[in-house]
Design goal:
The complex is a heterodimer. Chain A is mainly alpha-helical. Chain A has one domain (12-265): ABC transporter involved in vitamin B12 uptake, BtuC (Orthogonal Bundle), CATH 1.10.3470. Chain A has helices spanning 2-18, 25-50, 58-74, 79-103, 106-126, 128-131, 153-176, 178-188, 190-195, 200-226, 236-249, 256-270, 278-292, 299-325, and strands at residues 137-138, 144-145, 148-149, 228-229. In chain A, a hairpin with a 2-residue loop joins strand 2 and strand 3. The longest helix of chain A is centred in the middle third of the chain and has 27 residues, at 200-226. The relative contact order of chain A is 0.16. By secondary structure, chain B is an alpha/beta fold. Chain B is 34% helix and 24% strand. Chain B has ten helices and ten strands. Chain B has helices spanning 44-51, 74-79, 97-103, 112-115, 125-134, 150-162, 180-195, 212-218, 236-241, 243-250; strands at 6-15, 18-28, 33-37, 59-64, 67-68, 82-85, 168-172, 204-208, 221-226, 229-234. In chain B, the strands form two sheets. Chain B has a six-stranded mixed beta sheet, sandwiched between helices. A four-stranded antiparallel beta sheet of chain B has the order 2-1-4-5, covered by helices on one side. In chain B, a hairpin with a 2-residue loop joins strand 1 (6-15) and strand 2. The chains are: A mainly alpha, B alpha/beta. Chain A binds chain B through residues 174, 176-182, 184-185, 187-189, 191-200, 202, 252, 306, and chain B through 52, 73-75, 78-79, 83-84, 86, 90-95, 99, 102-108, 112, 115-120, 122, 146-147, 160, 163-164.
């Protein structure tokens, strides 16, 4: 079991490293966008999938990260300073957004975070002096590292991949530590968690803050990738899309964001042949998925295993009753 | 002289015009199993919720090992050594049984920061395994708790309360919805945990339960509540012989 996991991991890594070499320029761009959204939804998966906090404001953090880097670059501050700054800012704002979650839950929390997203969006649109308003910020440069320019799509892909792998390793470590169980306990039953000495307050706030920091880094990488940002990229609609990616991939599954982001970023491209109908096809696909796989794509193996176990159990029962009648 | 584990003095709680608990006083000694019985609406649950920090009483005092804990919340009380089970099932459905037990005690050592770098089982694996064996749930230890039968989940639920070796465990209807054959099992498990020097050493229990045979068999002393007040406190034999209690609650 462990061995197959290692082999799968190595194969996956090789695929991620080799993928852009097989693609044309636009394909590399698309793969980079996919990885950016993997990073963002990895954070949202912590907030929503592991800690169970319904957040519809994730695109706001994505935007805060993007604008932080864009403004930093415009003011002559290094990209390498802008990215951690964006992450830090998102962490702090995410901590703040966690407070409503201490009072309201489920759909009410979703509405509170949705309001937050709208407020941030309005700031991006209205504070023209800083954000460029509706016109956004353009000519966002790509960074260079130790004299080596990351201007090309291929080089930038590897930067995003590297950052994504580091962040995935950190997330893996966090979820493997007692924190992971505490987050899941909070999700499954907050009242019981508290009665067992789990500080649900702190874990709720941190699930928002860490998730937000991931979105901030993703947004920062995204700004430099597309080199032009405007408020329309960071609306509530985008937040809902990110939520959808988490749900489709499998909330609370570590690799869920990989699949979910692929569905959200790459599938629409494949559906281009449907032209005007593509949103319809996409919508129907999501509806069907939610009916058959409410726990997301990665719940398929679990389901198959459960079916196998129950079949084995009923076979055993049948054999037993046969033995008894004989 | 040592303090009683739990001392409740003159506890009162009203909801509007309804006096749910109207001045209740009792003590629970170290190692004692203390039963609370009474008809529905007699204030047992309100009393329980006050002791657990879910609600703040209007008047009165709750002391834990001599320390005033009247105004503390559930989190602080748990850290001070109060475990509990719930009337309805309250396991973490998507965690394995073993992880349910581990998470039930992991926050009792170290700081949040140190726990970020702690091993996955927080060093509690052996202890969890011991309880799993004691509760005879080894065969389901790696299953998700939400997939177990009601009775199995009930056992997990009870085991979780004992993971952090609490001084006082409050059990809210441990037999509710459990089939008769398991009631005996739960009873003997609780007796075992009560005197087991390894886990739950010197644990005291407060048990709310409607199953009279269970209560009479398990508890050292029993308190009968009627309409928010204490009608009687005594050994099972004394309660059984109490004419007033028989008329009001137990029936003939």
């Amino acid at each position: 079991m462990k061995q197959t996991k290692i082999i799968a991991g190595v194969l996956g890594l090789a695929l991620l490293l080799g993928l852009p070499l097989l693609l044309k320029n636009y394909g590399v761009h698309l793969a980079t966008t996919w990885l950016v959204f993997v990073i963002a939804t990895m954070g949202l998966n912590l907030t929503v999938g592991y800690a169970g906090q319904k957040s519809l404001g994730h695109a706001a953090f994505f935007g805060i990260g993007a604008y932080t880097v864009a403004i930093c670059l415009r003011e002559g501050i290094s990209f390498w300073l802008g990215v951690p700054l964006g992450a830090l800012l998102c962490f702090a704002v995410g901590l703040g957004l966690g407070f409503p979650a201490l009072r309201v839950q489920a759909i009410y929390l979703a509405f509170a975070t949705l309001g937050f997203n709208t407020a941030v969006w309005l700031v991006m649109r209205n504070e023209e002096h800083y954000t460029g308003g509706n016109f956004g910020i353009n000519d966002i440069a790509r960074p260079s590292l130790a004299g080596f320019s990351l201007d090309g799509n291929l080089a930038y892909y590897y930067l995003v991949l590297f950052v994504g792998l580091v962040l995935a390793a950190l997330m893996f470590g966090l979820l493997r530590s007692p924190w992971g169980k505490a987050f899941m306990a909070l999700r499954d039953n907050p009242i019981r968690a508290e009665s067992l000495g789990i500080n649900t307050r702190s874990y709720t706030l941190l699930s928002f803050a860490i998730g937000a920091a991931y979105a901030g880094i993703a947004g920062a990488l995204y700004a430099s990738q597309v080199q032009f940002i405007d408020p329309a990229l960071f609306t509530v609609g985008q937040s809902i899309m990110m939520y959808l990616m988490v749900v489709v991939g499998g909330p609370g599954y570590f690799l869920g964001p990989l699949l979910g982001s692929a569905v959200g970023v790459i599938l629409p491209e494949w559906l281009r042949f449907a032209q005007g109908w593509y949103l319809f096809v996409f919508g129907v696909a999501v509806v069907l998925l939610m009916i058959w796989l409410p726990d997301g794509l990665l719940s398929i193996p679990d389901r198959l295993r459960a079916r196998r176990v129950s079949r084995a159990a009923s076979a055993a029962r049948a054999a037993q009753s046969q033995g008894a009648t004989r | 002289m040592s303090h009683p584990v739990l001392k409740v003095t003159g506890l009162k709680k009203a909801y509007g015009a309804i006096q749910a608990v109207g001045g209740v006083s009792f003590e629970v000694q170290p190692g004692e199993i203390f039963g609370v019985i009474g008809p529905n609406g007699s204030g047992k649950t309100t009393l329980f919720n006050s002791m657990l920090g879910q609600i703040t009483p209007d008047a009165g005092k709750i002391e834990l090992k001599g320390q005033d804990v009247t105004t503390l919340g559930p989190l602080e009380l748990n850290r001070l050594g109060v475990g509990r089970t719930f009337q309805t099932l309250q396991v973490f459905g998507k965690l394995s049984v073993r992880d349910n037990l581990i998470v039930a005690a992991q926050e009792h050592s170290g700081s949040m920061f140190s726990r970020m770098f702690a091993p996955s089982d927080s060093g509690l694996g052996a202890k969890a395994d011991a309880l799993i064996d004691q509760f005879h749930i080894r065969h389901v230890a790696d299953k998700k708790a939400g997939e177990l039968s009601y009775g199995q989940q009930k056992l997990v639920d009870i085991a979780m309360a004992f993971m952090s070796e609490p001084d006082l465990v409050l059990l809210d209807e441990p037999c509710a919805g459990v089939n008769p054959s398991l009631v005996g099992g739960i009873s003997s498990l609780l007796k075992e945990l009560n005197r087991n020097p390894r886990i739950g050493s010197h644990s005291s229990f407060v048990v709310i339960e409607h199953n009279m045979d269970f209560v009479m068999d398990l508890c050292h002393r029993i308190m009968v509540m009627v309409e928010g007040t204490v009608m009687a406190i005594g050994t099972p034999a004394e309660i059984r012989a109490n004419k007033q209690v028989l008329d009001a609650y137990l029936g003939s």
